Amino acid sequence: MKAKVYVTLKPGVLDPQGKAIQHAVELLGFSDIADVRQGKYFEISLSGQEVAAEAQSAVTRIAAEVLSNPIIEDYRVEFEA
Predict the structure, then answer these.
(1) Which SS3 state, helix, strand or coil, does residue 70 take?
(2) Which residues contact 16 (CB under 8 A, 6 or more apart)?
(3) I want to staple 75 with a disulfide (CB 3.0 to 4.6 A). Which of 35, 53, 63, 66 is the partner?
(4) Three-state secondary structure call for residue 50
């Protein structure tokens, strides 16, 4: 089983890296870009011995306590078999 964790800045949190990317994209001629927000992506491979509910709980805890800063970031967890 594989878990995918997406971590993004919360709405309203300034994103200077996203703004720099937006500026670079505009310099390349893409003028219709309204906003760019950057984030982080993680893949976590699970051994397959855990029950699905236990795996989801463990990965959610990892995302909340290790992979994201809950003050300024949100996270989303997805699973695939």
Answers:
(1) coil
(2) none
(3) 63
(4) coil
- Per residue of the chain (81 residues), what is the pLDDT tens digit? 899 999 999 999 999 999 999 999 999 999 999 999 999 999 999 887 777 888 899 999 999 999 999 999 999 999 987
- CA dihedral in degrees (43, 47, 50, 51; nearest 10)? 70
Q: For residue 68, give the nearest of 13, 4, 5 by alpha carbon.
A: 5
AA letter at 26: E
- Domains located in the chain, CATH noted: 2-80 (3.30.1280.10)
